[in-house]
Amino acid sequence: MTVFAKIIDREIPADIVYEDDLCLAFRDIAPKAPTHVLVIPKKPIASLIDLTDEDEAIVGRCVLVASRVAAGLGLGSGYRLVVNCGPDGGQEVPHLHFHLLGGRSLGWPPG
Ligand code: AMP
């Protein structure tokens, strides 16, 4: 069971900013920007590599939730939505998650 599954089940605490039937959004414990929220599906999908056709609505909801959370948190001047995938992508937690980063000017390209 991943740390994110435990957050969904309320086995460990998190600063939850949004929840619905498909998705959960909570603040990253080690923020890389002034605003750093993780949007995750409740379904335990390990990574982008593991997506199937039946996950289309879930992924769509996560992106829509990220957009709405960004607006709600006042990120009107812009933000970044990032998915790390696999070892080369820097993914550490094997539960699909969208990093919503904002509150400062973000460099490009990423490292
Ligand atoms: P990634 O490297 O893309 O897998 O990102 C995993 C993210 O999860 C990192 O930014 C961590 O800081 C974050 N994280 C790990 N454990 C927790 C936790 N208990 N609560 C909130 N965020 C967490």
Helix and strand arrangement:
Blueprint (H helix, E strand, L loop, with lengths): L2 H6 L7 E4 L3 E5 L7 E7 L14 H17 L6 E4 L3 H4 L8 E5 L9
The site of adenosine monophosphate (AMP) has 12 residues, from loops.
Could you characterize the architecture of this molecule?
A hairpin with a 7-residue loop joins strand 2 and strand 3 (35-41). This protein has a five-stranded antiparallel sheet, covered by helices on one side. The chain has three helices and five strands. With 111 residues, the chain is of the alpha+beta class. The radius of gyration is 13 Å and the shape is globular. The chain has a single domain (3-102), classed as HIT-like (HIT family, subunit A). The model has no long low-confidence stretch (mean pLDDT 98). The chain binds adenosine monophosphate (AMP). Adenosine monophosphate binds at residues 3, 12, 14, 28-30, 38, 84, 90-93.
How would you concisely characterize the structure shown here?
With 111 residues, this protein is an alpha+beta fold. The chain is built from three helices and five strands.
